[in-house]
Amino acid sequence: MSLLDRIGKVLKGATAGSAPKSDPPATTETPKPAATAKAPEAPSSTTATPSTKGLFGGEADTAAPVAKKTADAPSTKGLFGGTDADASPVAETKTAEAPPDTKGLFGAAAVATETAEKESTGRKLQSDTPSSTVPEPDPQERQIMPVHPKVLMIVHNPPVPSEGGKRLTEIFKWHDPEKNAKGYIEDLKKVSGGYLNYEIVERIDSDLFPPKADGFTYTPDQYVKVMRGQEKAHQPDWLDYHKRIETFDLQNRFNNGDFDEVWFFSFPYAGEYESIMGGPGGFWCNAPAIKNTDRFKRRFVMMGFNFERGVDVMLENFGHRTESIMTELYKRRGKNQNMWKRFTQYEKQNPGDAECGWMHYAPNSQKDYDWGNTTPVTSYCDDWYTYPELPRQGKTMTAKDWGGGDMRAHHIWWFSHIPKTTGETDGISNNWWEYMVDPNKV
């Protein structure tokens, strides 16, 4: 064989094989009715931080804009990083800047990209939270890939004929749902270490007053009289969830992969829960599961935000959702110690063993919503930054460590302590955010 023939044979052999493929890393409290009173110190429509009192009432001023059904759909570029003024509505269709496709998010592996790896969660959090110092993550914890759940945002903000066609938010100086959603999305991304990146893929503005379970529906003028104390609110207050599913074709759209969860922004007395779950095997999610929804392919969550209130209460809604899901998780799958129960310990209930507390109780709280308590307490809450290692290194803390009584600051502090690292402990992922986002993993 000539020298040229031998060289050709070697080159042919070197290029014949194909590169191996690599798989991307897979990524009782009673139900509360809608708010019955105006939010304390109702902020202006451009500056206030609303709260979510009432299921479909929630912190609705920071909502990230989503393409309205009747308007051109703007791009979402900058949604998670820009200022309120920069935020543009979320488009129904994807753009070149959109994050990886999330269809099948609840079960499918995330697509790994260099950008995603930079944002992937470990224990590192933003430095501007009111929490104590967070340790730097180990390099291996960069393996957790961010998720981008798709959200259908539906806003009930009807015009009122007797008020010259002004909408409820304008009449009562309530919050802008778009701004509320934006703040909520940004807060959850930050406290999850970049793991949770909600993406509003569509916005629907509905002028309907949602029908109650007994069929009653407010008229715009009648509702205004209720809010001004001229008439009494209708009782029972609860809305008809099956009618809501039918009205917005939620079953077919969910099964088609159009969205992963729904956020409703409504008004006081809308009759909504702060969060509620449906689908096969649905369980308590700060409200009884919606019955007869087994035709949904998977479990799903509806969030209810009241635009009379701010982002602080929206975070509380998500916190109560978290409490429900994690309680169910450890009830179903925990084999040994209930780590969720340990995480929520506080001094009044567990003297000498305070950890992080829960939504209503900081480590030193003596009653509900007592986030401003200045009494020093020894807490082991910062142990959770190194979970599953819990070194029992107690620290003396006061309300200053979680925001000095500010509701939103406390909730940011609390969420920042929730484990978000690799591996499993007792058969449960060390990234608890997986379950908080996707109840199908419980």
Widest sheet: strand ordering? 4-1-5-7-6
The whole-angstrom Rg is 24 Å
* Helical/strand content category: alpha/beta
How many helices? The count is 11
User: Uncertain segments of ≥5 residues (pLDDT<50)?
Assistant: 1-104, 106-134
Distance between the termini: 65 Å
Q: Overall pLDDT, averaged?
A: 78
Overall geometry comes to: globular
Give the tally of β-strands. 11
* Secondary-structure element order, N to C: HHEEEHHEHHHEEEHHEEHEEH
- Portion of residues in beta strands equals 5-15%
For the largest beta-sheet, the strand count, sense and barrel status come to:
5 strands, mixed
Helix fraction by DSSP (H/I, runs of at least 4): 10-25%
Q: What report would you give on this structure?
A:
This protein is of the alpha/beta class. It has a domain at 23-110 and 145-334 and 427-442. The protein is built from 11 helices and 11 strands. It has helices spanning 3-16, 114-119, 168-171, 177-191, 220-227, 241-247, 250-255, 311-333, 339-343, 407-416, 433-437, and strands at 150-156, 159-160, 166-167, 199-206, 261-266, 275-278, 300-306, 377-379, 395-397, 420-425, 428-431. It has a 5-stranded mixed sheet with strand order 4-1-5-7-6. Strands 2-3 form a two-stranded antiparallel sheet. Strand 2 (159-160) and strand 3 (166-167) form a beta hairpin. The protein is globular, with a radius of gyration of 24 Å. The model is unreliable at 1-104 and 106-134 (pLDDT under 50).
